[in-house]
Amino acid sequence: MILLNPKKYQDRKYPDERSKEIMLKTIAWFENKGMKKMKEDYRSREFTYDFAEFIKKERIFETLFLPKGYGEKDQYYSTYRMFEFSEICGFYGTAYWYMYHVSTLGLDPVFLGDNEEFKHKAVQKLRKNPLCAFGLSEKQHGADIYSSDMKLYPQKDGTYLANGSKYYIGNGNEAGMVSVFGKIADTDEYVFFIVDSKHEKYECIQNVINAQNFVSEFALHDYPITDAEITSRGKKAWDDMLNTINICKFNIGSGAIGIVTHSFYEALNHAAHRNLYGKYVTEFPHVKRLFLDSYCRLAAMKLFGLRATDYMRCASADDKRYLLFNPIMKMKVAIQGEEVHEMLWDIIAARGFEKDIYFEQAVVELRGFPKLEGTRHVNMALIAKLIPSYFFNPKKFDEVPRLNGAENDDYLFAQGPTKGYAKIQFHDFRKTFATKNLPNLEVFKEQIKAYEEFLMASGMELGDQMLKDFDFLLAVGEIFTLVAYGQLIVESAAIEKVDDDLLDQIFDFMVRDFSRYALDIYSKNSATEKQQAICLKMIKKPVKNMERFEKVLKEHVYSLVDTYHMNP
Ligand SMILES: Cc1cc2nc3c(=O)[nH]c(=O)nc-3n(C[C@H](O)[C@H](O)[C@H](O)COP(=O)(O)OP(=O)(O)OC[C@H]3O[C@@H](n4cnc5c(N)ncnc54)[C@H](O)[C@@H]3O)c2cc1C
């Protein structure tokens, strides 16, 4: 069972009772709330106070967010557990997911920072009010995080007064701890400090968006700050900001998987019971293809996500592979989710607009996901730097097993300075792909060979081409991303014992995507004739096999009909 089914969650294996308890209680909370009330709150833009109450009562964020050494004796931070919780929240609604996501974003600068005393204070604060917020973005500066007009003004007595405003800050209406990124006014040194949204010098100006979640604009007016509220400064504050995003952008992929999984069940249940011209909708040939493709894309999202989790968890100073797989989890997985929604909507058509199901809400809300924590472009600009190292300078690493135990993810809270990104090394993808011989995988491997030829033939000039033409970089980066995506899917499929037919069917869409991206590079203004000629070699057709198609459809997809309906 690859996809989340909340009704079968008790069958899963957990490293400990507490992990099981928080997942099952959360599912039960949503199912008891039921679809009708969930949709009413969504439509009335009711802030998720009820969820905040539940989280506080069950002390859930404390269990999920705190690293080892803080909170309970056996406390540990696990990306695997975060994945599960994020997926569950996404499954039921973005407002709940967002409350969780921005809380972890808001708290991580504290635990990445140098202020040990505040870390212990934060545990107590979290128990009183689990909502946190991450105050980075400003109205005028968007993705340009170097510019910050939020300032700490030094006072004669050694304290500071904070002045400035922030924009697009989730939970900024209620958070007990808002981590604010800014500069010290007289030195321009970066700084992270913590404020409380209920302080009299904190003004919550508005909810910038018209939605159930609160994405605030807030201002600080001479808000008093002492060293006790500063968590880091200078280069360390800058690193803590980027490292916080490194940890948390992962939630975007897992949240997206949850959202789309729920939509998938709804679409499947609807189509399987709708009879037109004497036939069920699920019997139409194009619907079969759309369902199979949707399922394969969704299964691939999940398989990739699980494996990327392992690389987050095994990270160390010598193993920074997560810095490639993490942006892919954020960017590619969320965008794949949008593709799945398009297909499902084509199937269920008018039903997808109706107010009594999750689907109409899910398609709208998912669209925001690729735009959070660095846009698609910013993430692609980042990972394209890894192309030379990934393809031409692999390194041997010990085999990484499925890491779903009770270990603390030590390194995530000790990532250190954010430098040397382009020098990160990877295990050889060729060796991973060599572990499996399936018809579509073989085609995919030929496409990779052609892409390698493209890289070799382009030589050092490719870097200049991409620097001059960002649009070209995006196209070249899509294929790089696809290769790394495929690598982790193959690894994950082996661990999860995914059958060969399903894996081969997944690589059917992977081959088609490869061809699509190759045509995209071919069509770019910057592509040279030599590059265009090699692009044509990458364009290939998947190996069709109707027997496999029908088998996967029956065993993996249509077998899910009526296996999940949310409580009314
Ligand atoms: C619903 C929602 C919730 C949010 N929550 C939070 C939050 O809790 N805390 C917080 O701090 N922020 C939050 N944000 C802000 C979010 O992180 C920003 O939207 C994001 O950083 C991008 O800024 P921008 O949308 O203003 O785009 P802009 O900065 O205006 O970018 C415009 C365009 O330029 C491109 N671009 C910019 N820089 C580069 C580059 N270096 N390379 C290539 N292309 C580039 C972008 O891709 C984009 O297409 C939230 C945003 C939304 C919509």
Instruction: Describe the sheet with the most strands.
Output: 8 strands, mixed
Which regions contain 5 or more consecutive residues with pLDDT less than 50?
none
Distance between the termini: 24 Å
CATH C-level name of the largest domain: Mainly Alpha
Strand fraction equals 5-15%
- Structural domains: how many: 3
What is the ordering of alpha helices and beta strands? HHHHHHEEEEEEEEHHEEHHHHHHHHHHHH
Q: Outline, from the CA principal axes?
A: globular
CATH superfamily of the largest domain: Butyryl-CoA Dehydrogenase, subunit A, domain 3
**Mean pLDDT across all residues, rounded?**
96
Class from helix and strand fractions: alpha+beta
Give me the CATH fold name of the largest domain: Butyryl-CoA Dehydrogenase, subunit A, domain 3
Radius of gyration (Å): 24 Å
Query: Which ligands occur here?
Result: flavin-adenine dinucleotide
The CATH architecture of the largest domain is Up-down Bundle
Number of strand elements: 10
Describe the protein's architecture and organization.
By secondary structure, this protein is an alpha+beta fold. The protein has three domains: 6-130; 133-233, Butyryl-CoA Dehydrogenase, subunit A, domain 2 (Beta Barrel); 249-394 and 428-559, Butyryl-CoA Dehydrogenase, subunit A, domain 3 (Up-down Bundle), CATH 1.20.140.10. The protein has helices spanning 17-43, 49-58, 60-65, 79-92, 94-112, 116-128, 235-248, 250-273, 285-313, 322-348, 359-366, 376-383, 387-392, 429-434, 439-458, 461-468, 470-496, 500-523, 529-538, 546-557; strands at residues 132-135, 151-154, 160-170, 177-184, 190-195, 202-207, 215-225, 230-233, 275-276, 279-280. Strands 1, 2, 3, 4, 5, 6, 7 and 8 form an eight-stranded mixed beta sheet that branches. The protein has a two-stranded antiparallel ribbon with strand order 9-10. It is globular and about 75 Å long. Bound molecules: flavin-adenine dinucleotide.
